[in-house]
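Fold this sequence, please.
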Amino acid sequence: MKRLLVLILLLAPTVWAVAPASTITYSGMTEEFPPYNYMEGPHVVGYSTEVMELAFKKAGLKTTFTIWPWLRSFNQAKDFPDCYVYSTSRTPEREKLFKWVGPLAKDSVYLMALRDSTIKETPDFKNLKKYKIAGQLGDQPVNFLQQHGFEVMIAADEETRMKLFKDKQLDLDIMTTESQPIYEKRWRIKYRKIAFLYETEYWAAFNLATPDEVIAKLNRAVHEARAQGAVERIAMKYRGQ
């Protein structure tokens, strides 16, 4: 009988315990990109951060937030379960790499110069290929410019990029309408718009292993928060800060 019992146990299919979605703490990865996500003291704050925090609370789910260089955050979310990256543009190239929650925000992306720069405004950004520009590896505006034949210097982080720009070692900066006043205040500079690049929406991109019910709950929570005016109230809190 003992031998029979052992044989039955050996032949029985293995059943793996799967933790309920409500007990999992999802890891939110992002970059330094005010007003959407940035460090303030020991905490990750920002417009998108608060929207995600609210969505998780409404959905009865848990999350943490971490700031890393952009490509590391992107790859972490792509390669590891229970991870997501935000605020990221939802492009055709990225569509099948993730499951999506949002949109969290909308913005316009420009090439900008310092106000005292002699570079002239142009209706076609492709006229600016001769100028020095920097960005972070894997960032969508960098990919966009490279796809249009630009040589973009890769900066180690936002602080390095901004120091180079402020010291006039770069000619142009990749900047958005919402970020402009915050960067001007933080770095004590004044921008001038030189060329429009594109409009974008920012989303949270979740690892493909994320259950569909979790994605549905979070999307419902974001849409409800927007309908109730909570998203706009968060946006106003950070706008022009």
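The domain at 24-106+201-238 is CATH 3.40.190.10 (D-Maltodextrin-Binding Protein; domain 2). The longest helix spans residues 212-227.
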